Hints:
Blueprint: H1 25-38, H2 43-53, H3 65-72
Pfam family, one: Whib
Binding site for [4Fe-4S] cluster: 9, 37, 40, 46
Domain 4Fe-4S Wbl-type: 8-70
Amino acid sequence: MEWLDRAACVGEDPELFFPVSGSGPSLTQIRRAQAVCDRCPVTWQCLDLALGMRHASGVWGGTTESDRAALLRPRRTAR
Length: 79
């Protein structure tokens, strides 16, 4: 995974990407982490890694745990 060397989060405090909750001050932390992801050249690779490994917590590829759960949830087809 040589793409990790190009990630915008290299050198950032890892705790930034693992907020304690999804409300209050943690929302600010989530937004700060997502701002790092917004300028990252390997966001899609990071998200793919998180989805493939089913990472439960943290901000990965600019997404939160609930964002990824929604992406993984089976879609119902309209009839």
